[in-house]
């Protein structure tokens, strides 16, 4: 069971990592509050952008004096935090892995693309803002740290985006050379790593731990898992499932676009779901194919069949995870901030600023509103709700502008019937039908907005008839449903009111091209009188023929009125009938 993209290299993308960071922030703050460890700096007090030392905010929590005065609480905090964090990450990977597997197994990947592009771009832009926020946080909000980090990370992104130099050389050198310069400055100032760490240039030291502790500190200490705190991560988890699933699908489709191969989405995402089950059991964050790694791999190997790079990548990651991660303790804060500035620049430039080229001004403003809501509230869930509301309103407004009527209304004489009547009668029928009958061809799906537009259109048409003599006014409106997909309850209610108003104006509403299922729906919604099929027809021709018969009855009534005026008119009528019915060859030519 392997990927059908041999050059694929997968792993945790920045999106799940950022959401994992949100989980950790929620868990740490909630556990600290429960244990009474809150103090200035833990719960997010205001910080000055160009200052605010490190020891006053993050480094002091359960460290130094704070640890000495809250030793028992800090021990409990770390035990609960580790167990709850591992459990949270494992559950999120299991849920997303299950979603991946079901999407592939049930062949539902195409439904994921139904989410509007503007919403997706807004979500990714929010992630970019959050990445920048973490870059500042990793630098302790100190200008002397985040400014050099930004000056390294942002230009590196543009060098990669505009293909300046070889990415395999530019990016490693662009990150490692500044680290060497940093160490040169530290040692030139007469400091060692421990002193620089105390001054906030490094993160607090994280000792290496045995890999099996991922299970012993979580499953082995289930009593330390704070389920009450875990529940508070659910809003972020719900959004994470959506964003990560969309991001995974985007990676799959983009790989097929960028590389000369076919990438079966249903199969690939099903494979990712199965492997994420193993990842969940290891307490790691969800992973899937990464487009940037695929392209770099293809660019180096110049073929799409070689799996060696993916195997080497997996062995290196697994080896470092099992052996040690002590080398991370020697990476300065500014280095990790530079990485985040590098990653965040991609989100901002491609998803926020770059999306304006492929979207209308209104759609781009939707993105800005969603991002603005996220910046003001700091809650991605609120931004999602606002984004859904904005895009919903936008969709309703745009779809309501699409006419629910196909073409212009047709008059009765414009409908060609398969059976033609006598020429004289046909001319009279067409003459009356031109005034009496109008055919409106409905199309699409009628919902509350488009139904109001349709009702207003028909009402205006009926109003225009009031200035005509009674014999020239509209008497039949045929609603042809051959192109109609359906209607919702609001549209049905609007049509019921319209039909009542039309009947009050002596206008009959007739339905044509009605299937048996749609007829039952019309009955169920109360639009039609019960068991009255006299106003519903299977075809448009049947509806027009029925109206023609009513017109003929009307003509016969007029004829009777004329014949009753004087006996000479009646005699002339009888004479004409006898003349027209006379056939001198009736007894000569026999026919069936």
Protein traits:
two-stranded antiparallel ribbon, four-stranded mixed sheet, 6 strands, elongated, mainly alpha, 592 residues
If you had to describe this structure to a student in words, what would you say it looks like?
The protein has helices at residues 14-34, 65-69, 71-105, 117-138, 143-161, 167-188, 193-198, 213-216, 227-231, 234-258, 265-281, 291-301, 308-323, 333-353, 361-377, 380-400, 423-436, 448-463, 489-504, 516-524, 540-563, 567-581, and strands at 10-11, 288-289, 410-411, 437-446, 476-487, 508-512. It is mainly alpha-helical and 592 residues long. The strands form 2 sheets. A 4-stranded mixed sheet has the order 3-4-5-6, sandwiched between helices. It has a two-stranded antiparallel ribbon with strand order 1-2. Helix 19 (489-504) links the parallel strand 5 (476-487) and strand 6 (508-512). Helix 3 packs antiparallel against helix 11 and helix 4 runs antiparallel to helix 14. The longest helix is centred in the first third of the chain and has 35 residues, at 71-105. The radius of gyration is 37 Å and the shape is elongated.
């Amino acid at each position: 069971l392997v990927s059908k993209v041999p050059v694929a290299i997968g792993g945790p993308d920045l999106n799940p990592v950022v959401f994992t960071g949100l989980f950790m922030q929620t868990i740490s703050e909630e556990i600290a509050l429960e244990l009474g460890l809150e103090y200035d700096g833990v719960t997010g007090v205001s910080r000055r952008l160009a200052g605010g030392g490190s020891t006053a905010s993050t480094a002091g929590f359960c460290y130094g004096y704070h640890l000495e005065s809250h030793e028992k609480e800090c021990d409990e905090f770390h035990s609960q935090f580790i167990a709850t964090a591992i459990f949270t990450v494992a559950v999120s990977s299991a849920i997303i892995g299950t979603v991946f597997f079901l999407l592939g197994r049930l062949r539902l990947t195409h439904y994921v693309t139904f989410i509007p592009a503007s919403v997706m771009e807004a979500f990714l832009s929010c992630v970019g803002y959050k990445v920048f926020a973490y870059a500042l946080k990793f630098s302790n909000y100190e200008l002397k740290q985040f400014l050099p980090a930004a000056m390294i990370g942002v230009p590196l992104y543009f060098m990669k985006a505009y293909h300046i130099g070889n990415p395999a050389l530019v990016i490693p050198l662009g990150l490692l050379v500044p680290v060497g310069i940093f160490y040169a400055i530290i040692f030139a100032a007469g400091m060692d790593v421990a002193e620089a760490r105390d001054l906030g240039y490094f993160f607090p030291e994280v000792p290496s731990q045995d890999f099996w502790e991922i299970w012993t500190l979580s499953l082995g200490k289930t009593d330390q898992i704070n389920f009450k705190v875990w529940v508070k991560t659910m809003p972020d988890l719900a959004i994470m499932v959506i964003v990560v699933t969309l991001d995974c699908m985007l990676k799959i489709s983009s790989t097929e676009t960028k590389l000369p191969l076919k990438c079966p989405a249903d199969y690939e995402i099903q494979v990712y779901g199965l492997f994420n089950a193993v990842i969940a059991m290891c307490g790691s964050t969800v992973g899937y194919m990464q487009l940037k790694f695929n392209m770099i791999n293809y660019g180096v190997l110049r073929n799409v069949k070689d799996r060696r790079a993916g195997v080497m990548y997996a062995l290196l990651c697994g080896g470092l995870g099992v052996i040690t991660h002590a080398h991370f303790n020697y990476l300065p804060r500014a280095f990790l901030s530079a990485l985040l500035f590098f990653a965040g620049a991609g989100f901002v430039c491609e998803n926020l600023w770059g999306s304006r080229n492929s979207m209308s001004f209104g759609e781009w403003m939707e993105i800005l509103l969603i991002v603005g809501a996220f910046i003001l509230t700091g809650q991605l869930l609120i931004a999602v709700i606002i984004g859904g509301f904005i895009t919903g309103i936008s969709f309703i407004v745009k779809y309501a502008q699409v006419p629910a009527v196909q073409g212009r209304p047709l008059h009765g004489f414009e409908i060609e019937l398969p059976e033609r009547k006598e020429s004289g009668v046909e001319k009279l029928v067409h003459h009356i039908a031109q005034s009496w009958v109008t055919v409106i061809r409905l199309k699409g799906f009628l919902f509350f907005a488009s139904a109001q537009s349709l009702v207003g259109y028909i009402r205006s048409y009926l109003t225009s008839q009031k200035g005509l003599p009674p014999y020239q006014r509209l008497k039949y409106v045929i609603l042809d449903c051959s192109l109609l997909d359906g209607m919702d309850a609001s549209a049905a209610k609007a049509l019921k009111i319209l039909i009542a108003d039309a009947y009050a104006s002596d206008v009959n509403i007739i339905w044509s091209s009605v299937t048996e299922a749609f007829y039952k729906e019309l009955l169920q919604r109360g639009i039609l009188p019960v068991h009255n099929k006299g106003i519903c027809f299977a075809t448009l021709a049947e509806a027009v023929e029925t109206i023609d018969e009513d017109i003929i009855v009307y003509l016969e009534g007029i004829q009777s009125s004329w014949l009753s005026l004087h006996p000479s008119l009646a005699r002339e009528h009888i004479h004409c009938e006898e003349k027209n019915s006379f056939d001198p060859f009736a007894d000569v030519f026999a026919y069936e």
